[in-house]
Design a protein that fits this description.
With 171 residues, the protein is of the alpha+beta class. It is built from four helices and eight strands, in the order E-H-E-E-H-E-E-H-E-E-E-H. Strands 1, 2, 3, 4, 5, 6, 7 and 8 form an eight-stranded mixed sheet that branches.
Length: 171
């Protein structure tokens, strides 16, 4: 198995949605050149008074708002492979609401008029979670030690294939 230090910074609630199979996509304004990365939890958004307004399932988010860890060292439990990136006009992004935990308004405000890049991710739970620090970086960063990409998919192959097909056929 390979080792990796590259990580994607993401809200912990979103990482847990990916890691628990509640979400299979990320919606971004940009594409990616990476094929795989660790999912590194961030906490800065959690301090906003209206953070729950960004999510459809407020109870899930309350339970998963903050990652385990302290002093800028957080538990990394998952990694992802990018299976495909598709582009959609921002006006068509509402059709993807059932594939993520954010509210329609949150996604709309995030994208503005920019075209959406929808990353279809295959997420794996690491065999051994790691307490890691990361370097500075807005989108991607590096963790302080290599992590072996050993783990099991969070959803079955059949279920993932069906979801991917449904996402690709969403108009």
């Amino acid at each position: 198995m390979s080792e990796i230090t590259k990580c994607l910074n993401e809200w912990n609630a979103t990482i847990e949605a990916l890691g628990q199979g509640k979400q299979t996509i990320l919606i971004r304004k940009y594409g990616t050149t990476l094929n795989e990365f660790l999912l590194y939890p961030t906490v800065s958004y959690a301090n906003k008074d209206d953070v729950l307004d960004s999510f459809q399932d407020k109870e899930f988010v309350k339970d998963n708002l903050l990652p385990s860890g302290e002093d800028r060292t957080y538990e990394v439990k998952y990694y992802a492979t990018v299976e495909e990136v598709i582009e959609k006009p921002s006006t068509r992004i509402g059709a993807f609401n059932k594939f993520h935990i954010w509210t329609r308004d949150h996604v709309k405000n995030y994208l503005g008029r920019k075209e959406a890049k929808i990353w279809i991710l295959r997420v794996y739970e690491l065999d051994e979670s790691q307490l890691l620090k990361r370097s500075n970086g807005m989108l991607y960063a590096n963790v302080d030690k290599p992590v072996k990409l050993e783990g099991k998919p969070v959803i079955s192959d059949d279920e993932f294939d069906k979801l991917k097909e449904e996402i690709l056929n969403t108009r």
